[in-house]
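Running co-folding for EZ4.
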Amino acid sequence: MKITSARVIVTCPGRNFVTLKIGTDEGVTGIGDATLNGRELSVASYLTDHVIPCLIGMDPQRIEDIWQYLYRGAYWRRGPVTMSAIAAVDTALWDIKGKMAGMPLYQLLGGRSRDRVLVYGHANGRDLKETVDAVGKYIDMGYKAIRAQSGIPGIDKAYGVGRGDMHYEPADARLPTNTVWDTPKYLNFTPRLFEKLRDTYGYERELLHDVHHRLTPNEAAQLGKALEPFRLFWMEDATPAENQEAFRHIRRHTTTPLAVGEVFNTIWDCKQLIEEQLIDYIRCTVVHAGGITHLRRIADLAALYQVRTGSHGATDNSPVCMGAALHFDTWVPNFGIQEYMRHTEETDAVFPHDYRFDDGFLHCGEAPGHGVEIDEKLAAKYPYDPACLPVARLEDGTLWNW
Ligand code: EZ4
Ligand code: CO
């Protein structure tokens, strides 16, 4: 069997997505997500200019060997661009293998470990009251786990606050939008938000919160301690994790569960965090962490230390990534939770899929492969529209972590 074609499709049905489509001499095709928010065309070029010429003529059944070829063979290892490109190839090849076998992807991985996949949705508002109301709406929709983010008094454009009824979408302008960050205001406000949420809705649902890399290790320890009475499912990205050791300090001072990893792209980014049991949930997902083949290695390492998965599932991960991730979640023994931000109707129409939401859980489908297709005619109607993620600065102008 041979790969006879591979093409990159860039489309913007409400937001930008990059998809790799691989064709074979047996007529079976597969697709993989290659979207890197705000840096889309770099992955498109990496694939078109550097990867696709190597793929033509290769045997698509040799998923592991092709992964190793693209990882070791580039000489330049790791990084979000490289690993998203490898992920796209890997996802498309698993899709092809599933279709050849006539089996859904979770069967190829080892079969079901669970009946359905617990997801968390995103509730946000411009202030405390709006956020409390938004959490109520998610409870009404059936969600068992809800991430709460709120505008903060005195902070202009806080992370996680949507505009109107739109789905939260941070990549909002051709050049990065400026936002302001103020740690004391955030630390004063956030425990009050969760106190109010627990007073209003009780302790039955899981609540989550994303700090989005804004705190120092000691500030993160303080916040984790202050949030303990409100029993969060997790506190996410409390401090930037390039320095994995930084989590020792946070861990020593709080029992609030910690989640990290949406910006990681290989097992090396999380090795120490996992081996020293500094986190509870690892957030890598298919598209940014080298595909199913590599994500499985990360999850297996994590399982040794009782670290569970909590894959990134923002809207910038396309339905192709979500479909593949749901098969992964259905199989992976040390599953924790899956993030789920609904895509717009336009996006769902471009990427027909058989996963579905029901009563707070997602179900992957039974179609062979990962169960997601791309409607190329429809995709062609939505040309690429460059959009960047914002930057954050302190009130004195210092550049901070967005
Ligand atoms: O900011 O996916 O947990 N979710 C997040 C996301 C990220 C975006 C960046 O592209 O932190 O909202
Ligand atoms: Co996050």
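Result summary
The radius of gyration is 20 Å.
The first helix runs from residue 40 to 55.
Job closed.
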